[in-house]
Write a structure and sequence with these properties.
Blueprint (H helix, E strand, L loop, with lengths): L10 E2 H8 L3 H13 L3 E5 L2 E4 L1 H31 L2 E8 L2 E8 L21 H8 L3 H10 L10 H14 L1 E6 L2 E12 L5 E10 H4 L3 H18 L6
Length: 235
């Protein structure tokens, strides 16, 4: 990505290969992979420029900077007091984005990258985001993920779950790719009272099963504290 600049917004495949000291075929495979995820776009045969995903990521960075600064003290306190892994997330279009994360301090703990590269419906926190995303975005998401690696719930069950999550501002359950990990998540609101982010804890299932109500209270209390710091009066 650093090869592109204001002076050189477009580069040819041979230029990229030479500057990265790679073969042309290897560079082609690399750029094709980046093109598929929107990091670059091909503007003509053998020429590339930065893609739309760069702008999307930049927007997320700007939009979440104040959120991270505000939430960080509460996240640190959560880890200090309870030793569990915590995440701060937003939904960018249909993509779950981890804005901040702190790994737990207990000997048996969940890795901080557990939510990386997961689809929203594969995690309770992702489903919680979808529950307040609006009908149009929900329908578009589920249509796009009809053949996802983790099967979707039947529509009637899905709608009931989303409605309950939206009403409660809370979700809990296993992570699809790690069934022995439970994720609890609560929505965050700012001064506009619009839910726009979430805080979550990822906990080994054995430890969660000992006191599920306590972990729900811990998560919701943290969400209320962060929301108040963001200017919400509905806490």
């Amino acid at each position: 990505m650093r090869l592109f600049s204001e002076k050189e917004p477009e580069l040819g495949l041979s230029d990229i290969a030479r500057r990265m000291n790679l073969s042309t075929s290897g560079t082609h495979d690399l750029m094709d992979g980046l093109r598929k995820i929107g990091m670059v776009q091909r503007v003509s045969r053998g020429r590339y420029r930065l893609g739309p995903m760069i702008a999307s990521l930049y927007r997320v960075l700007i939009d979440t900077s104040a959120l991270v600064d505000t939430a960080r003290p509460t996240l640190e306190r959560l880890v200090e007091d309870y030793g569990e892994t915590v995440h701060l997330t937003v939904l960018d279009r249909s993509r779950l984005v981890v804005a901040d994360a702190i790994e737990g301090s207990k000997a048996l703990r969940v890795a901080r990258d557990i939510l990386d590269d997961l689809d929203a419906h594969e995690t309770p926190v992702g489903m919680l985001h979808l529950s307040v995303a609006g009908k149009a975005r929900q329908e578009a998401y589920f249509a796009d993920h009809a053949t996802a690696r983790t099967p979707l719930l039947p529509p009637d069950r899905r709608e009931a779950d989303l409605a309950a999550m939206a009403d409660n501002g809370f979700a809990a359950g296993p992570v699809a790719t790690e069934r022995d990990v439970i994720c609890t998540a609560a929505l965050l609101r700012n001064h506009t009272e619009i839910p726009f982010a979430a805080v979550s804890l990822c906990i080994p299932k054995a430890r969660f099963d000992e006191q599920p109500r306590a972990f729900r209270t811990i998560c919701q209390t943290a969400a209320a504290r962060i929301s108040a710091d963001l200017g919400s009066c509905d806490v």
